[in-house]
Write a structure and sequence with these properties.
368 residues, alpha/beta, 4-stranded parallel sheet, 17 helices, 12 strands
Length: 368
């Protein structure tokens, strides 16, 4: 969405077809976009870092992967029909599993294909599409990536990770109005991104009353846990209810949440990391252990002193409070954290990716 905002400035008559998986959250986000939307079958390859033998011997995981492989084949067939009907000038995918059948169909049909890799390690979909892409936009410096020999490294362009303009345009007054907290306590934003993070949520729920005695909390739970969060809010003592504001997820208001927060506690997805770096907030990052990329993203940033890294295995109420208080009580160290983190944000990433797409679409050439 951030890239498309910029692409519309370059091409006012831009026509967009958004191909997705059809899940409800995706539909909700795209309802107000005005873009044409279609859904296709797609599937993901499950891997949990247990080693090849254990992965293969896990019958449930293997059967799910086989089932999803057939969905990908069906998705490629449908994507070819969709692309033949729409006849795009360029195809853009962001590395999600829905992008794999679309990208493969685009390459087969000869349409220019631009992919973007958010993370420090190429995801499975992008590992496949990298050999077929016209250009590959990446969020980390090009030399960071270890790539197979069959991938042409000259295709990589260091653009940074695009974020929505609304993230940076939020005003303090609007943020205070949307999140009307008691000013005597610091504000902590806890987010598991759009899907939520159940392990983090569990720690928050089990210690909510105590946490609310010390902090004002904006809690983005994900849709699965929002009803429980509302119940927990209802159970709080009357004097603490105003210190806890739970949401399933935020869209246009996310910039207000960052503006209001003094500390951010989050997972390690590159989208979230980029947003936090952009707004200049100190972050405690708890990467999802089973993720292929979140631990790597977080460890790279932690090595530079850009974030405070908290492993999920070490997550308790006491450890979380200790990490938050370290940030709040040591302003000099926190300022260093913020400045270092902000260096990883490329301010014109959306414009850069949009320019690449426009040049590929108009066949005017693309320079790094």
């Amino acid at each position: 969405m951030a890239v498309l905002e910029q692409l519309q400035k370059l091409e006012p008559n831009l026509k967009v077809l958004f191909v997705g998986s059809g899940n409800e959250l995706e539909k909700k986000i795209l309802q107000s976009s005005g873009f044409e939307y279609v859904a296709i079958p797609s599937g993901k390859f499950r891997r949990y870092g247990r080693g090849l033998v254990r992965e293969v011997l896990d019958i449930k995981t293997t059967s799910q992967n086989i089932k999803d492989a057939t969905r990908v084949v069906r998705g490629i067939r449908q994507a070819r029909k969709i692309l033949n009907g729409f006849k795009p000038d360029v195809v853009f995918t962001k590395g999600g599993y829905v992008g794999l059948p679309v990208g493969l169909a685009a390459a087969k049909l000869g349409y220019p294909l631009v992919i973007h890799e958010s993370d420090s390690i190429f995801g499975k979909a992008n590992q496949v599409l990298a050999t077929k892409a016209t250009k590959i936009a990446v969020s980390f410096p090009v030399e960071t990536y270890q790539l197979p020999d069959r991938v042409d490294r000259s295709k990589l362009i260091y653009t940074g990770n695009p974020i929505r303009g609304s993230i940076l345009s939020a005003s303090p007054a609007a943020a205070e109005k949307f999140f009307p907290f008691d000013k005597n306590k610091p504000v902590v934003l806890i987010t598991g991104s759009s899907q939520g993070a159940q392990a983090i949520n569990q720690v928050i729920f089990s210690s909510l009353e105590n946490l609310c005695k010390h902090y004002n909390i904006i809690h983005l739970t994900g849709e699965r846990d929002i009803e429980r969060a509302r119940f927990m809010h209802h159970k709080l003592p009357a004097g603490l209810k105003t210190s806890y504001l739970p949401f399933g997820f935020l869209q246009s208001e996310m910039g207000l949440a960052y503006q209001r927060a003094e500390v951010v506690v989050a997972r390690g997805s590159m989208s979230t990391l980029t947003e936090v770096a952009a707004v200049g907030r100190p972050a405690i990052i708890i990467p999802l252990p089973s993720s292929a990329d979140q631990p790597s993203n977080a460890r790279i940033l932690a090595r530079f002193g850009a974030i405070r890294l908290l492993e999920q295995a070490d997550l308790t109420e006491l450890r979380l409070r200790s990490e938050i208080d370290q940030i709040l009580e040591h302003p000099e160290a926190t300022n260093y954290l913020i400045k270092t983190f902000h260096k990883f944000y490329k301010a014109y990433a959306s414009e850069h990716v949009a320019t690449i797409l426009h040049k590929c679409a108009t066949k005017t050439g693309v320079e790094n």
